[in-house]
Amino acid sequence: MIFAAPILGRMGVETDAHGCRQFSEGIRMLAGRRAAGSLPHVAVLALGANGPVGPGQIASALRVIGRRRVLGLVTARRSPVTDARMHAAARSHPDRVVLIDWVSFSAGHGGWFAGDGLHVDEQGAAAYARLIHRTIAPFAFPPVRALRMPRHSTGRRGCGVVHQLGRRLRVFVVRGTHRIVCVRARALVRRPPLRVAGGWTAYDWRRTGDGPWAWVYRRHDGRVVVAAVEAKRR
């Protein structure tokens, strides 16, 4: 992360890197940011290579950030315990944890690393930064201008209400109404957004202030946009 930090900064990602930092220190940093009112909507911890993530530490990080933020976890090479616990957290919290699988992404790219197979060179740092930015972008940087979402749901094709991980969401087809049926739109929104169906990208719209939308789903060909609004509990 030390070598990737300047690259991430140019991409708009605030980064704090330090040698030999432990996962516990990362949790304390998140807690400090929350107390100061400066904790971002998406927080990424790229820690665990200098010592395995302990039992319960990821749960502690989730408690700190709260239920409406997203926690990114970057898997650590040469640390199978950390890797396994991060994968388990992503499976257990499919609406709150996004896995940034550096271990798998970097496999077969020995030229990105120094002799220890852990610290990256310039090329590896660039790849590391791109992976992190690309993975968190739909949640940290939703494309408000590019998608031009309507300010209201009025007049949009409603497809009913679905239950997703304890939430009630109203489903709307915003664009491409003749290209998707409501059954498909509901199935799309019913899945955890961090595990969106293939061929789609889910954007976290909750912090944009751009209309009533909680999540926006764009088909990769750009012809269909489905959106979800949080419905009040009955």
What's the helix and strand layout?
Elements lengths: L4 H6 L12 H13 L6 E4 L11 H9 L4 E5 L5 H13 L4 E4 L1 H5 L15 H19 L3 H4 L9 E8 L2 E9 L6 H9 L9 E5 L10 E5 L5 E6 L4
Could you describe the 3D structure shown?
- With 234 residues, the protein is of the alpha/beta class.
- The chain folds into 2 domains: 5-140, Rossmann fold (3-Layer(aba) Sandwich); 145-230, no CATH class.
- It has 8 helices and 8 strands; from the N terminus they run H-H-E-H-E-H-E-H-H-H-E-E-H-E-E-E.
- It has helices at residues 5-10, 23-35, 57-65, 80-92, 102-106, 122-140, 144-147, 182-190, and strands spanning 42-45, 70-74, 97-100, 157-164, 167-175, 200-204, 215-219, 225-230.
- The strands form 2 sheets. Strands 4-5-8-7-6 form a 5-stranded antiparallel sheet. Strands 1-2-3 form a 3-stranded parallel sheet, with helices on both faces.
- A hairpin with a 5-residue loop joins strand 7 and strand 8 (225-230).
- The longest helix is centred in the middle third of the chain and has 19 residues, at 122-140.
